[in-house]
Amino acid sequence: MAAAPCIDIDLSAVRHNLAVARRAAPGRKVFAVIKANAYGHGDRLILDALADADAIAVARLSEGINLRQHGYARPILVLGVLDGVQDLVLAAEHSLDVTLSHVDQLPHMLRAEVSRALSVWIKIDTGMHRLGIRPDELQFVLSQLEAGAWSGDIGLMTHFANADQRDGDETRRQLELFETVTSRQPFERSLCNSAGILAWPDAHADWVRPGIMLYGSSPFAETSARELDLKPVMTFRSELVSLNHLIKGDAVGYGGDWVCPQDMLVGVAAVGYGDGYPRHAPNGTPVLVNGLEVPLAGRVSMDLITLDLRSQPQARVGDPVVLWGKGLAADRVAAAAGTISYELFCGITGRVERRISNTD
Ligand SMILES: *Cc1c(COP(=O)(O)O)cnc(C)c1O
Prior knowledge:
The protein is α/β, with parallel strands linked by helices. The chain has helices at 11-24, 35-39, 43-47, 61-69, 84-93, 106-111, 138-147, 169-182, 194-199, 330-336, 341-346; strands at residues 6-10, 29-33, 55-58, 76-78, 96-100, 120-123, 154-157, 188-190, 207-208, 234-246, 251-252, 258-259, 264-269, 286-289, 292-295, 305-308, 320-324, 353-357. The longest helix has 14 residues, at 11-24. It binds pyridoxal-5'-phosphate. Pyridoxal-5'-phosphate binds next to helix 9.
């Protein structure tokens, strides 16, 4: 078969990372966040490794329905905004829990004729200013649900905007505001994403919501995944498909962004932005060839990248290339490309084959 990139998904790494999250927040319940196709890893694939999670959380109704139909039997929370009564009826049909994140959604909640009791997490905006009811609206929302004889469970949640800044004032303020408005309520509470779990133990509450850490990336700019004992789940692989002995002054690829500073070997690997490798990755972005780092040299094209192989004059067509994963943290590639690993993972395109691998 022609050389083509693939991603290996290490389910034992998922189990390991989930255990790291559990150890960081002992005794708390866990929503494993697997929105956006499990951050590009393949949500149905990942599900098998999440047996130890108490529930899963997705962003969209369609994601929740897909995973319920796949046979996931524990609670599934849809974090995103549902589109009116119709979506609530569907959520109930598929036993999905929903999020209320604006008072305007309340009339739909109260009007929807659902086939079974819906559980709702009320999202309170404590400072992110994206989704969530205002703190001073909580009493009203709760009284409306009570007046409407709401029969499902109720939970209270918020989301941090800056949890990756350890000891940041903003998170402290969000946490205190959440405490103030919710502490006298009898309901379960949830605040923490991965960064919150690792940096804000005071905020663990009843449920935590790890996402990126499950996939083995660090939520912090200044701390590596390895330092956090997180293992990469996705390894993005390809191979060398061509080798060129170029001479000093030769320009490589579109725009001639790389000009050979000396006579040198340039390798071509079968991967490009059409597979989800970031097009804006600059010269020098690390790539592994035969397990050793070499720099990207020249602009990323749709199906190919070009590599400075001066350190590997013995390289051959067919040699293994790793874009990120085992041996090269996605966080490092993301930093080089001016983005975050979340975006790299989500950007893997449909033509890239996903393969399960288990290291234990
Ligand atoms: C995506 C998301 C998470 C997970 O965040 P990570 O930074 O990936 O851990 C948690 N809670 C909510 C509401 C989210 O949208």
